[in-house]
Amino acid sequence: MRRLLLALASTALLAAPAAAQTLSVRADQAVRIALSAPAKDVAVGNPEIADVMVLDERNILVLGKGFGTTNVIALDRSGRLILDRVVVVSAADAGQVTVYKGASASRYACAPRCEVTDKGDPAPAAKPVP
Predict the structure, then answer these.
(1) How many domains, in total, are found in the chain?
(2) Is the pTM higher than 0.70?
């Protein structure tokens, strides 16, 4: 009985580093993750939200693409889980300004001067009420 408890406790301790953690990434930016062991396979749950670039077998980049939540996993050569991260992609609002004029919106990136990033996107038209 003592051996069984010891085996279960050591298994739980070994699995702890692979437990899911949250990684915050801004849209259109990247974050480097150093892996605890060499990875053979790396996958992202929803490629519309984030993408993964393998730098080498111990380093990956997570790229924020769209807003939302997904996950990234990495497996070693034996198929063991070495990384399981929840990825939350949020807006890169720092230095961003939107100016509304009537039904159009202009976006500016300000660092240190404001430059137009796109001009006059029309607001979506309201649908007629039936």
Answers:
(1) 1
(2) no
